[in-house]
Design brief:
Elements: H1 19-22, H2 25-31, E1 38-42, H3 48-61, E2 69-73, H4 76-90, E3 98-101, H5 102-113, E4 124-125, H6 128-142, H7 155-167, H8 172-179, H9 187-204, E5 206-207, H10 209-222, H11 224-233, E6 236-239, H12 247-256, E7 262-266, H13 281-289, E8 294-298, E9 300-301, H14 306-317, E10 330-331, E11 340-344, H15 347-363, E12 371-375, H16 382-390, E13 395-397, H17 407-420, H18 425-432, H19 440-457, H20 461-465, H21 468-471, H22 481-498, H23 501-510, H24 512-520, H25 524-538, H26 544-553, H27 559-563, E14 570-574, H28 575-578, E15 583-588, H29 599-603, H30 607-618, E16 621-630, H31 645-648, E17 656-657
Parallel strand pairs: 1-7, 1-8, 2-3, 2-6, 4-5, 6-7, 9-10, 11-16, 11-17, 12-14, 12-15, 13-14, 15-16
Helix pairs in contact: 2-3, 3-4, 5-10, 6-7, 6-9, 7-8, 8-9, 10-11, 10-12, 14-30, 15-16, 17-18, 17-22, 17-26, 18-19, 22-23, 23-25, 24-25
The chain binds a DNA duplex (15 and 10 nucleotides) through helix 5, helix 10, helix 19 and helix 28.
DNA sequence: AGTCGAGTTCTTTTT
DNA sequence: GAACTCGACT
């Protein structure tokens, strides 16, 4: 397609942008690239999002409509950030674009065309723990003794195996062979479990995360009219964090982009999701799948001091040679202090050091919100959290116990889900199990009875559950409470249809569950507050389906971050979640073998991904970087800890060692 | 058979 | 904290 269309066609006008002045040469070349396939290799801190943002503006200037541009990202955070910045630059409201995570787009399209492949409009999405229990049920039905044998994989692991197979587009046998060879003998059996699991989901009209991607591929591959519609509709496709896409996601991009008007942006050195099937060879093979691909490299780094970049580059040099694109970040900034290396006695001393140093930084005029503490896994921050709380230093922690995974939130969502899709047995089981003497089995039996009654008498399942013949089957202790619960669900279901999702949510809180919360939790006021904040969240949605999908797909978001995103808080986060962010001062803690890299990664010989993760962490820092490692482990760790292999691989002149004075004895 | 309570173990990363 | 196991209770 020729881009030189009438540039009023986009329907939006914004002040002319001087691309040459606002972008460097590398960025400019990428942002104004000709329409064909393009691969942008953008190093950390090189202005990747900026380039993408200007690319979108440029496309609009060329006459493309917002609705013709598809923006795919890997995480919700990345999606939000990119769309916000596009809106800032061009004034085009972000909802005018098709943008979001692969799962989000899958959910949207499945909702429109799902019936072609047997997914009704009322389908609901399982979160990972729902999926896990359903998998468990499927297994128990086929082989009741399976979990009795401790050598057999648990439901959770089976879910992981299945997920891996699907995300890499391998058969169960192939995936077990490649990623779980110790279960080789079970492969045939496990494949049957997966079939049963798949069948159960269809019966309940529920889908799991992977279905959102897999069904999308199925729709596009097998239904020409759908494929052609979207290929036409999406005149240009931009993919962010391309190195973290897996084979299934890459396939989605290729199916949408049969016309090759596609730009993939990524950095193979930052691929940190291979445990989810991410495959950075997607980058290396991109030019083969999109003939005529032009490659743009963006390597000038505006974020970090030269000293930090030297260290980051050294991390990459010690990588095992592979098929990576060669890259070296070039500094644009002035010289500053070298990164610090701090050996500490144990995690306690590490915590003390951080608190002390933060005190010093504050005295120097640094804002608390300019400081981040990064770690490999959440439990490594527990010490620190307690100490910070004790000293009244405000901090913001990205995840930990996730908001949407707390019991009361999930209970409420389960009610909405069941009220909306009464075939969603998983949700019903969760709700019904709140009553004494009712567990999953009893709930299933009652649901079945209710469904049969409903079919015979042409009523809804909920009305069936209220029939005296079924109430008689409810265990005695719960017989009085049962109708109250079901009536409450009945009210919610009515509001699902006749009024807004927010109203239905409010009804759920005012109904049976509100009373339950008061009786069940000693901290019920704060739980009720959480639930009420859900109403506020629900107000943004006109349709129940949208709300439910968002609740499941956003499950890593904390409302804490959405609601009380105050300034002036110290940031605690895993390296994974810090991706794409930057901070003037960064502490990386727990840099010892067994902690970072994790013991498991060492055992499985999977060090290189951990190294890339370390690289991601290091490149978050703008001015000051503190790398600390405890020498004595806490509980469950070996007594002596070696400094991380990643530290040992660094030339000594790249950092300065801080020797702590032993203060206590 | 299914549910419940007490005691035990173990924590990666995200949609 | 939560998920799991095991034994007891309905």
């Amino acid at each position: 397609m020729d881009f030189s269309l009438d540039n009023k066609r986009s329907g939006f006008s914004f002040p002319p942008i001087d691309y040459g002045a606002q972008l460097n040469d590398e960025q400019f070349a990428a942002a104004t690239a000709p329409p064909g396939p393009a691969l942008v290799l953008a190093g950390a801190g090189s202005g990747k999002t900026r380039t993408l943002t200007y690319r979108v503006a440029w496309l609009l200037e060329q006459g493309m409509r917002p609705g013709e541009i598809l923006l795919l990202t890997f995480t919700n955070k990345a999606a939000r950030e990119m769309l916000e910045r596009v809106e800032e630059l061009t004034g085009v409201p972000s909802h005018r674009f098709w943008g979001g995570t692969f799962h989000h787009i899958g959910q949207k399209i499945l909702r429109i065309h799902g019936e072609l492949i047997g997914i009704g409009k009322q389908y609901t999405i399982l979160d990972s723990s729902d999926a896990e229990s359903l998998m468990g049920e499927a297994v128990r039905e086929l082989d009741p003794g399976f979990f009795k044998n401790k050598a057999n994989p648990k439901a959770r692991l089976l879910g992981d195996i299945y997920s891996m197979a699907r995300n890499t587009r391998l058969t169960t046998e192939q995936a077990v062979d490649r990623y779980f060879p110790h279960f080789k003998e079970l492969a045939g059996k496990v494949a049957l479990f997966f079939e049963a699991y798949q069948k159960k989901k269809l019966e309940q009209q529920v889908v799991d995360y992977d279905d959102l991607l897999e069904y999308l591929v199925l729709l596009l591959e097998n239904h020409e009219e759908v494929r052609e519609y979207y290929q036409n509709r999406f005149q240009y496709i931009l993919v962010d964090e391309y190195q973290d896409t897996n084979v299934l996601q890459a396939r989605i991009v290729d199916l949408f982009a049969a016309h090759h008007r596609v730009m993939a942006v990524g950095d193979d050195a930052q691929c940190i999701y291979s445990w989810r099937g991410a495959d950075f060879t997607n980058i290396t093979t991109f030019p083969e799948r999109h003939p005529g691909t032009k490659i743009y490299k963006i390597e000038i780094n505006y974020r970090s001091s030269p000293e930090i970049l030297d260290l980051a580059n050294a991390v990459l040099i010690s990588q095992e040679p592979g098929i990576e694109f060669k890259k070296e970040l070039r500094a644009a900034r002035d010289s500053n202090v070298r990164p610090y290396l701090i050996p500490t006695l144990d995690t306690e001393e590490q915590t003390q050091f951080i608190i002390q140093r933060i005190g010093g930084l504050l005295d120097e005029g640094v804002n608390l919100s300019d400081i981040a503490i990064l770690y490999r896994a959440h439990y490594q921050s527990l010490d620190l959290q307690m100490e910070l709380a004790r000293r009244h230093i405000p901090f913001q922690i990205t995840s930990g116990i996730r908001f949407f995974e707390q019991a009361h939130i999930r209970d409420l969502i389960a009610q909405l889900r069941f009220a909306y899709n009464q075939k969603d047995i998983s949700s019903f089981q969760r709700i019904a199990s709140l009553l004494p003497r009712i567990g999953p089995k009893t709930a299933l039996r009652l649901h079945k009875l209710g469904t049969e009654f409903a079919e015979k008498n042409k009523t809804s399942v909920i009305e069936g559950l209220l029939d005296p013949s079924i109430i008689a089957k409810v265990p005695t202790v719960s017989r009085e409470e049962w109708p109250k619960l079901i009536w409450s669900l009945h009210d919610i279901a009515e509001h699902c249809q006749k009024s807004t999702p927010a109203a239905a949510t409010q009804i759920a809180i005012d109904g049976w569950y509100g009373d339950y919360v008061r009786g069940a939790f000693n901290n019920y006021p704060s739980r009720l507050d959480d639930l009420r904040s859900l109403v506020g969240f629900a107000e943004k949605y006109d349709e129940m389906q949208d709300l439910l999908a968002q609740l499941v797909l956003l499950n890593s978001e904390t409302t804490a971050s959405a609601v009380d995103d105050e300034q002036g808080r110290l940031r605690l986060t895993t390296v994974h979640q810090a991706k794409g962010l930057e901070f003037p001062v960064v502490f990386m803690i727990g840099l010892a073998d067994g902690l970072f890299p994790l013991r498991r990664a060492i055992e499985e010989g999977d060090i290189e991904e951990e190294r890339r993760l370390f690289y991601v962490g290091v490149t978050r820092a703008m001015d000051e970087l503190y790398l600390s490692h405890p020498r004595i482990g806490g509980q469950g760790m070996p007594l002596r800890l070696e400094p991380s292999i990643f530290l040992r691989d660094l030339p000594e002149h790249l950092y300065e060692i801080i020797h702590l004075q032993r203060q206590r004895w």
